[in-house]
Amino acid sequence: MATVDSSVELEGATAATGDGLTHSMRKNGRFVNPWPGWALPSFTGSPNMFQLMWKFTTGSGDQSSIPSQEVLDTTLPIVTPDFSSPVPEDGMKVTWLGHASVLVQFENISVLTDPIFSQRAAPFQFMGPKRYRGPPCSVQDLPAVDVVVISHNHYDHLDYNTVKDLHKRFGEKLCWHVPLGMSSWMKGMGCENVVEQDWWQEARVKDREDIKVVFTPAAHWCKRGPTDDNLVLWGSWCVIGRRSRFFFGGDTGYCHGFKEIGQKYGPFNLAAIPIGAYEPRWFMKSQHVCPEEAVQIHMDVGARMSLGIHWGTFKLISTSFEGYLEPRSRVKEAMEAKGLKVEDFFTLDHGGSKVITIPQTEPSIEKETAT
What we know:
Layout: E1 8-9, E2 25-27, E3 30-32, H1 47-58, H2 69-75, E4 91-96, E5 102-106, E6 109-113, E7 147-149, H3 160-170, E8 175-179, H4 183-188, E9 193-197, E10 202-205, E11 208-216, E12 236-240, E13 245-248, H5 257-265, E14 270-274, H6 281-284, H7 291-300, E15 306-309, H8 326-337, E16 345-346, E17 353-357, H9 365-369
Parallel strand pairs: 1-2, 6-7, 7-8, 8-9, 13-14, 14-15, 15-16
Antiparallel strand pairs: 2-3, 4-5, 4-17, 5-6, 10-11, 11-12, 12-13
Helix pairs in contact: 7-8
């Protein structure tokens, strides 16, 4: 499939396109966030940053309270995924593989999000953020995977070893949907079927014209090396079948783009929304939502059911400043505060699955997009 770069080159922070949607933008060749007030805290010259690094280095700010493996086996268990149970024709099956890695199966297709099966989210496996909850399975244990969607290129979302292992197992049968700027990296890994997309760009899955994959906005940033800041775009994904709609939030701060996504592609039968790595707020607010903002995204996109992701797996720099189980409890409290059913925004054990039933009255994709 041909790719189209529809991003806007400009010097400011807004762009008028006439369609009412917020589009990706570049400044001096690098992508920028179009969201009002968005700012990534500086790593130098900030007293708060010095305090943050001091607390992280000395451990004096550690609020995560991550216990022993024996206690974790009770409070945050790892179970062997059951990939043998069938996916009902009138439903979706979602399996949490840890962090932002989710396997979603519906309408005879399997979609894998931001897969990472490595022990560390880093360029090397001898240093860097390490898992305190291991992967519930290996790439070899997975059922057939048709599509992988990647939200951005940070190491905890784009893992070299996992990409290599997935390509080795599935080869050209696997279709990768990635943000603008990432196809060359993917093809350098040997991946043949790579579809590079801009915000709001739609693509059909190879050999499955009834499945539409749409790259949609988020508030984040990209960096993988010392000088490649924001040369690659970031975002969220919608995967839409004849009756099933799935939204993947990836990694993001809160922005009004989620209301735009809900208006254009919602409601969704299922959403996977990040709920962790949000403290301290002065540092994380622009790039990671807190549980209350995650619930707002749940409402914005029109999710009937949401799975909490991006928590309980890696000890990232930010997870030294929030309790390791806090994201789960705060999501429940936020749902109650909004008068919503707590069970509509759920979490799973690592390797756990849930079946989502789709009402018979769901409209088809063809009906909604007919012109």
